[in-house]
């Protein structure tokens, strides 16, 4: 069998980068990983999430009631179905979601829907999985761009994002940062104000993508740290 990357530390991409194919797998990979016999491999605990852009929102009739079905496109452009079979049938999510927002499914398990035999698998979300659902108000593509920008900004020498100078604040010996995303740095107020017109388009995604990039996905044991601007944690 061709060897393929199985664990985050086999990848060149950091585990907290959305480009890491293990922590943030495609649907294909999720299917492969779930069909692979891992009994001879010691169980390694790491965290992963499927991310895709909501492409369509359908409230489907089902035995005199309704349930939410989302059509989502992720790393692979194929549309997959995410159907809510929890006791709320996903309906409370309707006030959080929009077409174009990203859906995050933590610890994704693929599901072949009987009515869609032969179609790509998707996710069937039941009660215990509702806590693993997150909504982020940016498309997957925008999050990827913010992800790349985040890693480029943190790897750079701390130059001003405005004028590119490396002069530090004489009092703090540090470049002051954007107070919203905490990633871009400035030599002073003037450059910060001037750069805002350009920076404001990327600031919010840069802030939001840190829910992913500020976690150590290989070892993090719970859902913290990090905050999501729009988050759904399931029925109360
Ligand atoms: Zn400057
Ligand atoms: Zn910012």
From TrEMBL:
**Which PROSITE patterns does the annotation name?**
ZF_MYND_1 (PS01360), ZF_MYND_2 (PS50865)
Q: Report domain MYND-type positions.
A: 160-203
Q: Which InterPro entries match?
A: Znf_MYND
Q: Which GO terms describe its molecular function?
A: zinc ion binding
State a single Pfam family of this protein.
zf-MYND
Give the record's keywords alphabetically: Metal-binding, Zinc, Zinc-finger
Q: What is this protein called?
A: MYND-type domain-containing protein
Query: Which organism is the protein's source?
Result: Ascobolus immersus RN42
């Amino acid at each position: 069998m061709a060897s393929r990357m199985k664990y985050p530390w086999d990848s060149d991409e950091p585990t907290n980068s959305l480009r890491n194919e293990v922590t943030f797998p495609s649907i294909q990979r999720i299917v492969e990983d779930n069909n692979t016999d891992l009994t001879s491999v010691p169980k390694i605990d790491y965290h992963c999430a499927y991310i895709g852009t909501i492409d369509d929102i359908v409230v489907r009739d089902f035995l005199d009631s309704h349930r939410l079905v989302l059509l989502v496109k992720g790393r692979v452009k194929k549309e997959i179905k995410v159907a809510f079979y929890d006791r709320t049938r996903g309906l409370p999510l309707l006030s959080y979601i929009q077409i174009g927002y990203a859906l995050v499914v933590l610890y994704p398990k693929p599901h072949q829907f009987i009515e869609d035999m032969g179609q790509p698998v998707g996710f069937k979300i039941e009660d215990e999985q509702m806590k693993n659902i997150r909504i982020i108000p940016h498309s997957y593509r925008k999050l990827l761009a913010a992800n790349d920008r985040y890693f480029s900004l943190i790897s750079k020498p701390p130059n001003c994002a405005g004028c590119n100078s490396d002069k530090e604040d004489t009092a703090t010996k540090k470049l002051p940062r954007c107070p919203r995303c905490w990633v871009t740095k400035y030599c002073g107020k003037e450059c910060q104000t001037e750069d805002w017109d350009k920076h404001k388009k990327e600031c919010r995604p840069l802030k939001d993508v840190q829910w992913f990039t500020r976690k150590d996905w290989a070892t993090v044991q719970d859902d913290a740290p990090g905050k999501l601007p729009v988050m759904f944690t399931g029925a109360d």
